[in-house]
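Hey, I'm writing a tutorial for new members on how sequence and structure tokens pair up, and I'd like a real worked example in the thread rather than a made-up one. If someone can provide the structure for the chain below, I'll link this post from the tutorial.
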Amino acid sequence: MKLTACLERALGDVFLLNGKECPFLLRDLLASEELAEVFGRPVMDVLKVFIGSPCGLNLRNILWHGFASPHEIPPKSCAFCTRYCSVMILLTAGLGQLLERYLQRTEAVLARRPLVALTGLEELAVFPDVTSEVLSVLEEVVKKSTFVSKVMLPYWEAALIRFRSHRFADCAMLLLTQLETGLRRVFATVNECPERLLTAESTALYTTFDEILAKHLSDGKINQLPLFLGAPAMEFLWDFLNHQEGPRLRDHLSHGEFNLHDFPREATTQLLAFSVVLLLRFTDEDVSTAFKGKAAIKSLVALAEGYTAHFHPISQLKKQVLSCEKSIRVWPLLPLPQEAEEAARLEGTSEARACKSLITEILRELYHHLPESHGAVGDGDGLPAEMWPQLIRELCGTPVPTLFCPRTVVEVLTVLRNISAQCARASSQVVASAGLRHQQWVERRLRSRQRQTYLHMLGSIKLLSPVLYLILLLIALELVNIHAVCGKNTSEYQQYLKFLKSILQYMENLVAYTSQQKNKWSETIALTRTALLKIWTFSEKKQMLVHLAKKSTSKGVL
């Protein structure tokens, strides 16, 4: 498995000598003219027979998808198995010689692509580090759980040995293949399709994680596995295997994109802990109860049952909103010069007052959709400043279904995330510019016009703070009701997207105007008023998702 993964990665590097974008699938990579130019078509045909085609030996897919049992891959003493391994090693060595000759002949330079680094390990670590007690329980459970086929038991035992030897990548590889094997059996059982247990036949679609974790079967029927496993288990599997911003452990490992020596223990720990809980579901009730009585196992079960998505776009948007809110919260703490009273005069201009009035009107329109504990617009002058952060955090804490989101939901999420990202950029620019200009003011390094621009900036900041808070509030409210977009017809949906994109355009313009290169602080007021008018007009039409939701946010939050 490691050999095929590392070979695929190396072949991808060679492909880029002549190609622009490396194919994702190994079979497409082996069929490419770019590799044939380097190694020759006969050599590539031999590789296709061994690892690149369902019509050949298909070793790579058979191993990585967990089809081969240990007795089909005998020990080294088996001449038949040794022959396969030897041929693959010799082929790899031969490829190196051919590559060296090609590089000498063409004077090309082979560049190695950087490996993928697993970031955000604190988000990965849902389960605590596995203890020796947990490992001992898993050793017993694999022998008694019907999830584990008896012929596959040696793989589970080997995975535990690898973990204890600190070979965490090896352990993860074995666990992933066996989780796929076990889930394939459950998938075939609950969907009453035993024929899907076929191995990787060249004439039939074989069942992998892609089909196992999908909403529908290939014939369009509902996949019963998600209903059987439950949302928490499905969310864990999607987080670790599928979501683009997640670790995608199986993809990266099977394509040779991780540094195996530095593979983090934390990632393997999560797979082991999840495996314990999953296997316990397939043991006799008496055995399961006895194991769950242990404090360490009881804790793992509770964490697994409460698992929510971490890497779904909905979860990622919540993090973006909270991060941006935290950034805006710093604004009142920014240093101000003594002459800051001048900035207050800008706040009192007719356009600035119009903006504040629009914010208040928009909030009044959203009054019935705010959580009950905050459902008031303070003193006719908008929402009190101290209530914005708490309200946004409360909305972001509202559970939102994430599994199998329709395309329209994903499209809206993409635009909302772009708006949030631009909001964060604007906030960081404000903080950076305010700090720099204040220092220059104190050191008397600003010319007369720059001083006026600085005062205009301070006045704009006082207005932009509630405006950005309002946009974050709108994002949070729409997010809580995101699935209501499925109730819009095509015309309404297009109008809604157009509205969101107008807010995105405003935020992009705001980022440009507040950059240190442009410093168009006075112009931000007119820009903001136009954007607020669009928001108020659209809100008046009751076409936002918060208006279409069957239940108000107040009921959903509380």
